[in-house]
Amino acid sequence: MIDVRRLRLLRELDSRGTIAATAQALHLTPSAVSQQLAALAKETGVRLLDPAGRRVRLTPAAQVLLEHADILFAQLERAEADLAAFDEGRVGSVAVAAFTTAISGIVAPALLALRESRPRLRLSVTDVPEPACFDQVLGGELDLAIGITHAGARPLDSRLLRIPLLDDPLEVALPVGHPYASASVVPLEALRADEFIVSRPGTACREVAHAACAAAGFVPQVRHNADDFVAILTLIAAGCGVSLVPRLAGLSSTDQVVLRPIAGSVPIRPIFAAVRRGSHQAPHLSAVLAALVAAARSPSPYDAPASVRGGEAWAVHSG
Amino acid sequence: MIDVRRLRLLRELDSRGTIAATAQALHLTPSAVSQQLAALAKETGVRLLDPAGRRVRLTPAAQVLLEHADILFAQLERAEADLAAFDEGRVGSVAVAAFTTAISGIVAPALLALRESRPRLRLSVTDVPEPACFDQVLGGELDLAIGITHAGARPLDSRLLRIPLLDDPLEVALPVGHPYASASVVPLEALRADEFIVSRPGTACREVAHAACAAAGFVPQVRHNADDFVAILTLIAAGCGVSLVPRLAGLSSTDQVVLRPIAGSVPIRPIFAAVRRGSHQAPHLSAVLAALVAAARSPSPYDAPASVRGGEAWAVHSG
DNA sequence: ATCGATCATGTAGTCCAGCTTAACGGTTCA
DNA sequence: TGAACCGTTAAGCTGGACTACATGATCGAT
Q1: Which CATH superfamily is domain B92-166+270-310 in?
Q2: Which CATH architecture best describes the domain A92-165+270-305?
Q3: Does the pLDDT of residue A319 top 50, yes or no?
Q4: Interface of B with A (CB under 8 A)
Q5: Nearest beta carbon to residue B4 from set A4, A64, A284
Q6: Contact pairs from chain A to chain B, CB under 8 Å
Q7: Cα(B116)–Cα(B99) distance, rounded to whole angstroms?
Q8: pLDDT tens, position by position, A8-58
Q9: Which candidate, A298, A270, A293, places its Cα nearest to that of A169?
């Protein structure tokens, strides 16, 4: 294998002209330079120097080697520069896990902002469900996971750090024919007699909905279970019940379903990011965290193409 | 400066997972690996390893470093491959000097052939006059010079090797009104009384012309001196005399000037290549030499666009 | 033509980077 | 809980890399 250190001697010899000058420039004796260059010639298997009078001339093979050496030196400098850039959070790669609405509402806008401010910071996003993603962060497969605080959740591992991102308010989704469909705000207690469509048992959305109803003083009558908001809206439009949907989902009222704010103390989905304790100070991760926090605070979420937005997509399905 | 040897340890650690496995793979003790990686972390100024249970995990900074390391390793392998390729004359760069007609008649076709057979062999051609070019070959600025053997020439330096390329035959150039203009071959003695247009004193062409006339038994009456063949043909067309032109110049008869072969023993320009003695065995130079010899032997010289060929160019000037 | 200066390269000796051995603290798994 | 494993550290040793010096060759100036 070629010794890069010896390539440096060759480069210096090419620009200085003599071994003596090379040695002086590198604070060595000419003998050392001569020996090292002889070793380089031996390990590459080609002659590198030709005697020319009382000095030496680089052989054509040495010229070929030098061209590659310059590329190598440049690459080494780039590596050092990138380590410095990493210290400032400008380069690196971060693997993020998030649930669907967090991807479109928080991660995507953050990713857009980072692409502007730190183009060489690579973000990879994966849709990993909530209990597993934290294990993957601990295992090092992921660097950051976005989750929801709720009663049924396993407490966060002590080696993970919780960083609050957003308290996502819930709204009620009612069919147009519902008595409260035209109210500006809806008290949750008014839905005490309605049938509810909520997520499958064990999911964060279901826990949050149950907690909100409990706070309003009743236990919701669950009739249907659906995780996907498009499916939920379809069921509501079909008159199968009402639901609580997070504002982050980016849904909007249609001609068959209306979304209304909740009166009084508004129930929320507390959304947070989890990282390995200590790793949040790493420059690349702290840069991503800052972008996520900023995106969560930003009033207008990522404006996806209309066809993929929940409301319109549902309208297509129902039409 | 980053030590490439240590980067290898990091790469191995990344793929093997543990320091112990890395050490075993590289026939070292875990202690040595640990020490070298610690040294790498110190010289780069970043932490590279995080303890993870009883093993270690690469930090994000180490991942950044690894990406560069892989590029470096690939570049090193490319360098070794190119040294091997150099041994076969497939890569390298050769600086060639030649006079004008040799460039178009020999070097250009050789360059075309080499571009096909050895695309990574870089040839640079320079138009350097005859006495100086040999000094530049000796000095190492050039690798090969093409010259003409003639009486007035300084004998070739003993450190240079002469490789014959081509015995370029001369032809007579006559105005259409000349008595021999319609002869199929022209005996040189028949031009004893004509006035001659030849190159400037000291040039190879003039020496060759004088030697040819001397062999025919007369001393040419020189009236005009011109080096450029287009200028010579213009003068002939204007009725200012006759000339001897080399076939390699690629000239052809026009409606005002005819070219005719010389009867009897045809005078020639002996064209040769000169390289530093010993260097002709170097693979890159021997490849170029072989291409030059082949191009010189090839019956059809490089077929340049018509507008730059001597004959047509002259026709344009005279029209 | 000669002498001194300069240069590359051997040889012998010295020194330190990098290795090994041994010991230790921490973690995992039975 | 103990045994096995892992990574790190300390101490000592070895070989590679450097220096000092000598040699042979070349160049430039006198």
Answers
A1: Periplasmic binding protein-like II (3.40.190.10)
A2: 3-Layer(aba) Sandwich (3.40)
A3: no
A4: 1-4, 44-46, 52, 57, 59-61, 63-65, 68-69, 71-72, 75-76, 78-80, 82-83, 86-87, 91-94, 140, 143, 282, 284-285
A5: A4
A6: 97
A7: 24
A8: 999 999 999 999 999 999 999 999 999 999 999 999 999 999 988 889 999
A9: A270
